Amino acid sequence: MLRLLRGTETADLAKRYARLLSDPRSAQAATAARELFESQFATRKGVGVEMAIRSARPLVDADEIAASCEALPGDLLAALNP
Length: 82
Fold this sequence. Notes:
By secondary structure, the protein is mainly α. The protein has helices at residues 2-7, 10-22, 27-41, 47-56, 62-80.
């Protein structure tokens, strides 16, 4: 998830995700996924952040990963909720 957030412009992700949210075939799953994403990645203590830190710790500083996991999801969620 962190690679996706770091490697893709927030506006592009938000545009694509908004399409998923607006399509009746995917809206329910996209809404549930957004809620999980927010709970797991939008705070430094989220389980997704902890997993990202464990997987990248030997290569990247844990505080850098935690800061990215806090800022980048926040940007995406803000773009989805204008």
